[in-house]
Design goal:
CATH class of the largest domain: Alpha Beta
Shape: globular
Number of domains: 3
Helix content: 25-40%
Number of helices: 9
Radius of gyration: 24 Å
Number of strands: 16
Largest sheet: 7 strands, antiparallel
Strand content: 25-35%
CATH topology of the largest domain: Rossmann fold
């Protein structure tokens, strides 16, 4: 669990520091104050530099670029230009002045573009004298030092690890299996839009016939109290994704969950993400989407309860006063006192700054009708 959070040179964030975090953190702020970017930064940290996830984030923002030198049917990504969308101002900098930093003192990553040279590492057989290649050593260089054959890479550092990943266009970084040699954190990222049933289906399969299945059903009953069971099915006559169907009390036919409205489907996505994020992070973008205000307080209560039980740290964003009010009620309740924190991102002189409110401060702000959003 992150105790604090510092983000430098990531997307529109030049330098943001949040000195303390809680179990459940609600991120607010006007449009273009980098709320989603904060979630993305935490996801990259917890992914352990999973390039397939990083490129998924880049693609979602429309920032995947292809090489201009491609010909024929094969098209390679312009890795340098695509990855530059992660850096502040989209700058491609090799001077070391704009490194990305994400994390706290205990858990962090550091990324920057570098030029490097690659040297072959050989081993000599003591008996025969024969040489064999056992690896390659990459060394960072300054481009003006006369290394005309230098290559382009992404330097990746963690607390106890440092390496250079080649990013030339011939390498398919999107499917790169590189991971930092440290424990990968479990995380689930809930997007604002409708999540495909195929993804929810895979999450359901992981918890089916366990205690967590009962937690999912009881959470869905916030919206439909007569719901008894759900299942993900695929019709034999259809090649489409699986459908979610529900068993409703006193209704003999199976009811498609999609027909029951956006709210119950949004709740399903959030609760499936939550029960699959054990000892990791749940990241929810635009929490309130599809949810009536009367549902939100109950859902926050479940999130606070399970975040403790499953040791999950939650980060969510919102634009909604109703969402903030529901969050405030739960985090100021006797059961969950001080387990939540509100973090407001503001743009000051074109830079993003953070102001945080603990449970008591949030309650005071609400009582005095101080505009928080």
């Amino acid at each position: 669990m992150l105790k604090s959070l510092k983000i430098e040179n990531f997307k529109n964030i030049k330098n943001v520091y949040i000195p303390s975090l809680a179990n459940v953190n609600l991120i607010i702020g006007k449009n273009n104050t980098s709320k989603t970017s904060l979630l993305e930064a935490v996801s990259i940290l917890s992914s352990n530099i999973d390039f397939s996830w990083i490129f998924q984030l880049i693609a979602t923002r429309g920032d995947l670029f292809y090489s201009s030198t491609d010909s024929g049917a094969t098209r390679n990504f312009d890795n340098l230009k695509s990855l530059s969308s992660l850096f502040y101002g989209r700058q491609i900098d090799f001077s070391g002045n704009l490194p990305i930093f994400i994390g706290d003192e205990e858990e962090n990553i550091f990324l920057q573009f570098v030029n490097y040279i690659e040297e072959v590492v050989e081993d000599i057989n003591q008996t025969t004298g024969e040489k064999s290649i056992i690896g390659r050593r990459r060394s960072k260089v300054v481009t003006n030092n006369g290394f005309s054959e230098s290559l382009i890479g992404l330097e990746i550092q963690s607390k106890n690890y440092n390496t250079i990943v080649p990013i030339d266009e011939s390498r398919t970084l999107r499917n790169n299996r590189f991971h930092l040699p440290i424990q990968k954190r479990n995380f689930q990222f809930i997007k604002p839009s409708y999540q495909e049933n195929e993804i929810n289906g895979m999450l359901w399969d992981k918890i089916a016939l366990t205690e967590k299945e009962d937690l999912v059903i009881s959470t869905l009953q916030i919206i439909e109290e007569d719901l008894e069971k759900i299942s993900f099915i695929k019709e034999e006559t259809s090649s489409r994704e699986r459908r979610v169907i529900a068993k409703i009390k006193n209704i003999s036919e199976r009811v498609p969950l999609k027909s029951m409205g956006d709210g119950i489907n949004r709740v399903l996505t959030i609760i499936l993400g939550l029960v699959n994020a054990d000892e990791g992070y749940l990241l929810i973008d635009e929490f309130e989407n599809g949810l009536h205000y009367s549902v939100q307080e109950k859902l926050w209560g479940i999130i606070f309860k399970l975040s403790q039980k499953l040791k999950i740290q939650v980060f969510a964003t919102t634009h909604s006063d109703d969402c903030i009010s529901a969050f405030s009620t739960v985090t100021n309740s006797k059961e969950y006192k001080n387990l939540g924190k509100l973090i407001k991102l503001e743009k000051v002189n074109k830079e993003i700054k953070a102001v945080d409110f603990n449970s008591k401060e949030l309650s005071i702000a609400e009582n005095q009708n101080i505009e928080l959003r």
